């Protein structure tokens, strides 16, 4: 199992920095990680301290788990259906479409929004929309 962990402030500049740190991971991992980070910026505010973890399991299991932990357990993510003309509201919908599953774990002083993706890197026909 491999683990990458980043302590950072949720700012617009943090998203491309996070993608750069995850450059050895697939597009779906980078996209889901930055969408979860962007949700913190949008719903809790710029500068919120977060911990981002990317956990890769053994090749035989072929899964990657992304976790974004923030200090606000009372604010929950909401899966929305954005219309064609809306400029926001698609982040969690993208995560929902790409991930095999996602959820929220709460503690007394934090919450972690996580998702798990299947690793398709070695499979034939793998593309950015899944295996």
UniProtKB/TrEMBL annotation:
CDD domains, alphabetized: HATPase_RsbW-like
Any one GO molecular-function label of the UniProt entry: ATP binding
Domain Histidine kinase/HSP90-like ATPase: 28-114
Keywords: ATP-binding, Kinase, Nucleotide-binding, Serine/threonine-protein kinase, Transferase
Pfam families: HATPase_c_2
SUPFAM superfamilies: ATPase domain of HSP90 chaperone/DNA topoisomerase II/histidine kinase
Transmembrane region(s): none
InterPro entries per the UniProt record, alphabetical: Anti-sigma-factor_SerPK, HATPase_C_sf, HATPase_dom
UniProt xrefs under PANTHER family: ANTI-SIGMA-F FACTOR RSBW, ANTI-SIGMA-F FACTOR RSBW-RELATED
Name this polypeptide is given: ATP-binding protein
């Amino acid at each position: 199992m491999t683990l990458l962990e980043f302590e950072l402030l949720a700012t617009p500049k943090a998203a491309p920095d996070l993608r750069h740190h995850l450059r050895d991971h697939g597009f779906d991992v980078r996209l889901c990680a930055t969408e979860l980070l962007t949700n913190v910026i949008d719903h809790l505010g710029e500068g919120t301290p977060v911990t981002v973890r990317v956990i890769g399991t053994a090749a035989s299991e072929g899964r990657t788990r992304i976790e974004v932990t923030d200090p606000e357990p009372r604010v929950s993510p909401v899966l929305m259906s954005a219309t064609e003309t809306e400029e926001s509201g698609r982040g969690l919908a993208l995560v929902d479409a790409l991930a095999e599953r996602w959820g929220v774990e709460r503690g007394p002083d934090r919450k972690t929004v996580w998702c798990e993706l299947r690793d398709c890197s070695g499979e034939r026909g793998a593309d950015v929309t899944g295996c």
